[in-house]
Amino acid sequence: MSEPVTNLTAFAAPAELRRAPVVECSGGLGVLTDKLSAFAEGKTPRWWWILFLPAAFCATVVLPFCLFYQVFTGVGVWGNNHPVMWGLDIVSFIWWVGVAHAGTLISALLFLTRQHWRTTIGRMAEAMTVFSVMMAGLYPAIHVGRAWFDWFMFPIPNSNGLWPQFRSPLMWDVFAVNTYMVVSMLFWFMGMIPDFAVLRDRATTRVRKIIFSLLAMGWTGSARHWHNYEKAYVVLSGLCTLLVFTVSSIVGLDFCTSQLAGWHATIFPLYFVIGAVFCGFGMVLVLLIPLRKWCHLEEIITMSHIDKVAKLTLVSGLMIAYIYAMEFFIAWYSGDPYENWVFGHRLFGHTYWIFGWMLIGINVCVTQLLWFKKVRANLKALFIIGLLINIGMLTERFVIVVGSLYQDFLPANWGKYIPTIWDIGLYLGTLGAFFMMYLLFVKFLPMIAISEVKGATPLGDPHHPLGGATTDQGGRP
Amino acid sequence: MSEKVYGLIAEFDSPAAILHAAEKVRDAGYRRWDTFTPFPIHGMEKVMNLGHSLAGWFSLALGGGAFLSVVGLIWFTNTFDYPLIVGGKPMFSPPMTFVPSYIMLIMGGAVGALVGMLALNQLPRLHHPLFKKPRFVLASRDKFFLLIGARDEKFCETETRQLLESIGGAHIEIVEDED
User: Fold this and answer.
1) Is the Cβ pair A451, B26 closer than 8 Å?
2) Which of B16, B39, B100 sits opposite A469 (nearest CB)?
3) Model ipTM value
4) Number of Cβ within a 10 Å radius of residue B3
5) Which residues of B fall within a CB distance of 8 Å from A201?
6) Torsions phi, psi of A461, nearest 5?
7) What is d(CA A199, CA A213) in angstroms, rounded to the nearest whole number?
8) Which of helix, strand or coil describes residue A409?
9) Where are the domains of chain B?
10) What class is the B3-51+127-178 domain?
């Protein structure tokens, strides 16, 4: 019945084959735990307040003010008007959905592909996903104009006897965005259960103890718990990976199922997915670099991890560049005069040409800097590139949405779109709400997957000499 | 309130130590025992003979259920309750239902995975006899615990204690449970 004893003899690999561990942990697992939970338990530093107060102001004053004014008055307060019926609200919606995608990609897809370096940044990326999907979901809900009829979008039996039109991509969007929000929250929460237990066991005050005990739900770290947990985690990762490719595809379908020149292209679903991931990596860089420094996580999130994020940014940036080239090529190759017109006017039109060039300048040219190791090792440069990518992607969505709408098939229909203060205020408000929630997350919740990181260290590996395995040099030269 | 013995707990220092200890406890013929570690130990599921986790089946059941219910909902609404002609296409065709039902499959599957994990682990629970042990807080930090349950047929306070001592367990203590 009993199996042979598991062989825990570690063969010392030749020096050239040894890999640097994901996380160095010289002081032992206990010290590592202290380091990882230090920020959630320590005194709130001043930089946190300096960032939190303006963000909280935007979230609790600017955002509700813009929302209420718009809901009570009507969508007319925005710059949206014929022919540009989709303005900054839809632009921001796509942008926020995009920001979310890199988080899921890092936490789910890189988990499935066994990229252990993701353990250090996974949780922060997931939090980014959760909060940005919330912000994204807000826009369509108020864009409909009569927000109190939002429930029409859901398939609920009602006294009007109405059901939604299930063939419409806009309807699919309702499903996709809501599912994305729920699933990414579940994934985020489940990943945190063992870490809530860590914070529960470390709690010094009664309030903390009660809160984290409730959140940890009685987690003991039993082998049976871990066994089921790991299985569920793999399943959730698989499902989240599907969402990475689904949600933005469906947003892309909103556009490409229309007949409008500049939108009606089969590349759109893929285009939106890649754009989303690219934009999200920009946001990861923006969030990660300062937090790493201010929360003293340099030893955990090493330069090698940042380098890998930068490389992924470059890869997605190259794909975006390819898709831009394809869009222009197909517009020319199709011979469709309207397509030709729209794409010609992206760069040489009279109103929004600057955005077309910005898009190429930032998303295509600036990204190429990441080829250089010097740039990837320079945190300031990476931070600025991350910011620029976010601006670039906001521009891209503006070019796609407004650029195709403002000059349609009949010159008599042509118009312009200028965002009003309410458009911009709403965007600022969602930015504030995002950063406020993110800062609260960083302060109060385990922002690094404590148990995952410990498991990824040599000390946590039973087959590694540091994890207690006996070394065997015999039989090797 | 009477206190009864829940089991004997021992403490180990490294992942390899707990894995070796687990093997020896298994080989000694114990059945009701468990290990408590700050992170999953690679190979422990084999030593403990845990087999496959059923969490995936929960996910499949809920995901599949959600998929089929959405297909059913669309079929019912578009064919009977609210026939809607779109582009002269048939009232119902399987491909048109794919996207919403596939999305709900993901939703159902995710909920199923989490609910399945919690159900199989018998969580949430507010109390566990081990939480009364002051040293057990280290189970989420850097110590690795092995518990042999008192309900095990082979459990005998002295012999089990000797076994735990012989395999290198430190801080061997009796865990009590309120009746």
Assistant:
1) no
2) B16
3) 0.94
4) 11
5) 136-141
6) -105, 115
7) 9
8) coil
9) 3-51+127-178, 55-120
10) alpha beta
Q: Which positions in chain B touch A23 (Cβ < 8 Å)?
A: none
What CATH number has the domain spanning A29-154+162-461? 1.20.1630.10
The 3-state DSSP class for residue A225 equals: helix
For A110, the 3-state DSSP assignment is: helix
Joined together, the tokens standing for residue B62 give: 């809920």
Q: Does A356 touch chain B (CB under 8 A)?
A: no
Closest Cα in chain B, distance from residue A418 (Å): 35
Q: Which helix (H) or strand (E) holds B172?
A: strand B170-178
Helix H or strand E segment including A399: helix A379-405
CB atoms within 10 A of CB A19: 7
**How many CB atoms are closer than 10 A to CB A304?**
10
Please report the sign of the dihedral spanned by the C-alpha atoms of residue A395, residue A366, residue A134, residue A260: positive
Mutate to test the interface with B, among A158, A163, A204, A253 (most CBs of B within 10 A): A163
Residue of chain B nearest A37, judged by CA positions: B141
In chain A, whose CA is at the least distance from the CA of B107?
Answer: A179
pLDDT in tens, chain A (477 residues): 444 456 666 666 677 777 777 887 778 888 899 988 989 998 999 999 999 999 999 999 999 999 999 999 999 999 988 889 999 999 999 999 999 988 898 888 888 888 888 888 999 999 999 999 999 999 999 998 899 999 888 998 888 888 998 988 999 999 999 999 999 999 999 999 999 999 999 999 999 999 999 999 999 999 999 999 999 999 999 999 999 889 999 999 999 998 888 899 999 999 999 999 999 999 999 999 999 999 999 888 999 999 999 999 999 999 999 999 999 999 999 999 999 988 988 899 878 888 999 999 999 999 999 999 999 999 999 999 999 999 999 999 999 999 889 888 888 988 889 999 999 999 999 999 999 999 999 999 999 999 999 988 888 888 888 887 776 554 443
Size (chain B), residues: 179
* B2–chain A nearest CA distance, Å: 23
**How many Å apart are CA A439 and CA A215, to the nearest integer?**
19
The answer to whether A183 faces chain B, any CB pair under 8 Å, is yes
Measured between beta carbons, which residues in chain B are less than 8 angstroms from residue A5? 20, 23
Q: In 3D, which of A362, A431, A350, A348 has the Cα closest to residue A396?
A: A362
Tokens read off for A136: 């994204």
